[in-house]
Design goal:
Number of strands: 0
Strand content: under 5%
Structural class: mainly alpha
Length: about 200
């Protein structure tokens, strides 16, 4: 995994913004890129002048994420479950994962896309089950953009400000990302429960 991530880091270092765009697109179609390491490195490159602008680095990273998620959505929408179940194994996306993601969307709606932007691995393939569920494009892109902007901006800015300490930050995120996602889901569940009870309360 580290060797693969090192290869993608080399692409960003060698090809600049084009390399970053390609890498982030691949990360969002299931490739084992290691975005939590690539983005801080890109931020550090921007801070040292190898990339011209931190903000342009964030914009290119988000554009790559949207491109990758678009590909995943198209595959899920027009290829359907048979296509994904046949070829999904190459990105470790099988029938159980599809069923869990579909149930998650059914319960939480399009907001599930936003939550998944912060969960390792799932964030890279969430477009596929969203396409299978035929999620409307407006909420899909809205939540994808919002989640990707927070994710990419956070890591790029941390990499830019922390330099050599960026890897430690990304490793910490890897350890705590699942907990963060669980907290977000619980908070959303509590909000929906309270709202539902308030709406049923006689006026």
């Amino acid at each position: 995994m580290h060797a693969i991530t090192a290869f993608f880091l080399h692409l960003v270092d060698h090809f600049g913004y084009l390399g970053l765009y390609v890498v982030m697109t691949l990360a969002n179609i299931g490739a084992p890129v290691g975005s939590e390491l690539v983005l801080p490195a890109a931020g550090a490159l921007a801070a040292t002048g190898h990339l011209s602008s931190v903000w342009l680095t964030i914009a290119v990273a988000v554009a790559g994420e949207l491109s990758g998620q678009t590909i995943g959505y198209i595959v899920g929408r027009f290829g359907g479950r048979p296509f994904v179940e046949r070829f999904g194994k190459y990105v470790h996306l099988g029938h159980p994962e599809i069923e869990r993601a579909h149930a998650f969307f059914e319960r939480w709606g399009s907001f599930a896309v936003f939550i998944c932007r912060f969960v390792p691995f799932i964030r890279g393939v969430v477009g596929v089950p969203a396409g299978i569920a035929e999620m409307p494009l407006v909420p899909f892109y809205l939540w994808t953009f919002c989640g990707s902007l927070i994710f990419c901006a956070g890591f790029v800015l941390l990499g830019s400000s922390l330099g050599s300490h960026a890897e430690a930050v990304s490793d910490a995120f890897r350890r705590w990302a699942v907990l963060i996602a669980v907290v977000a889901v619980v908070a959303l569940a509590l909000y929906l429960i309270v709202r539902s009870r308030v709406s049923r309360t006689p006026r």
